[in-house]
Amino acid sequence: MTNLLRTLRSALRTARTAAVAVLTAAVCLVGLPATPASADEAGQSVATPVFITNGLWNDRMLCASPNDDSVWLKQFDANNPYCQWIQVGDRGRFLLFNPQKHKVASYLGGNGGAVVMENLVYPAPNQQLFSWGGWEDWNAYALQSYQDSGQNIDAKDPDNDNPRSDAVHTRGWRHGHQRELTWNALPVSGPSIGRAIDALQSYQSYLSAVLGSVTPNETACVTTATPLWSQTNGRYVSAELGYGGDQNGMLRARADGMGPWEQFNLCRNNKSNVYSIRSAANGRYVSAELGHGGDQNGMLRARADAIGPWEQFTIEPTGTGYAIRSAANGLYVSAEYAYSGDQNGMLRARANAIGPWEQFQ
């Protein structure tokens, strides 16, 4: 147990920066303008899954019950799907969606009120919303009810100083112990295009299933930075923000490691199921430059302020990775390894079929 606690505490410290980024990533059913696209389309954001671990007992985490609609404190188990959550909303106002349970967490109200799993209501009522409090000096955050910020999700047994062994409830911040009222969001796994796709599809399919014909037209973006990696040369895709003119923001598979220029946010529209890609470095959407001529036609550049036809793509699994296809011209994105110099590895939407140069992870 001592070794497990030491390992988990080390992992939490290492993941703290990433976790803070995750805390701000979510689909916002309460109005988060993230993706300007059209007058009738809402901009959203969605996190990749996290474990929610306790600030005192680092080896315990929040889990939805597989048997009923209660929420429990369980021993850390990275393989338990009921303990994985997608935060839905910004840091100060969000849902906690459990993909395995296919429901969201809800606070039933009152001092010591129960935390349960419910079907989503749209627009989300305050009892289905939570917020993160300020950072505490023991490296954790209060997890508060948005309806009543004085009520925090509690890991302590109400009758003793041990982790609770019954269904989770809330407790007031100043009522005795405090550390048990704090939590951390620990990423389930590292970022990848596959995990970003899974998170978007998981939440958006749930949204459509619950809301049916009243599902809003939303483009959701994963704000957890996602790399693109070419399977052919083993290099990360960079947005060349140091280039000038109509080459600025060119996407090239050329980097050995992942820095700021190699991070992207994947977006998906829940009505059309088409994807868009946004550079995390400059906040611009990736365009297929169909107005360029010759061997630069279809060049991908991170340069658009909004999503239009040239910024829309489909993404297809290939068995070992993914192929990206422009929705505007129907052609697959290739990494141009025959090009030389500062054009080598340029990404272009120009291929009729999927080959080695058209596969990414």
Provide a descriptive summary of the structure in words.
By secondary structure, the chain is mostly beta strands. The protein folds into two domains: 2-35 and 48-187, Trefoil (Acidic Fibroblast Growth Factor, subunit A), CATH 2.80.10; 225-358, Trefoil (Acidic Fibroblast Growth Factor, subunit A), CATH 2.80.10.50. The chain contains two helices and 24 strands. It has helices spanning 2-23, 193-211; strands at 42-46, 50-54, 60-64, 71-75, 86-90, 93-98, 103-107, 115-118, 130-136, 140-145, 151-153, 170-172, 182-187, 218-222, 236-240, 250-255, 264-269, 275-279, 285-289, 299-304, 313-317, 322-326, 332-336, 346-351. Strand 5 and strand 6 form a beta hairpin. The longest helix has 22 residues, at 2-23.
Uncertain stretches? 1-40
| DSSP, total strands | 24
The ordered string of helix (H) and strand (E) elements is HEEEEEEEEEEEEEHEEEEEEEEEEE
Largest sheet: 4 strands, mixed
Could you say which structural class the secondary elements and strand pairing correspond to? mainly beta
CATH class of the largest domain: Mainly Beta
- How many helices? 2
Total domain units: 2
Sheet with the most strands: spatial strand order: 1-14-17-18
Spatial shape: elongated
Oligomer description? single chain
Helicity, as a percent range: 10-25%
What name does CATH use for the topology of the largest domain? Trefoil (Acidic Fibroblast Growth Factor, subunit A)
Radius of gyration: 22 Å
State the distance separating the first and last CA atoms. Answer: 37 Å
Strand content: 25-35%
How much is the average pLDDT?
Answer: 88
Please state the second-level CATH architecture of the largest domain.
Answer: Trefoil
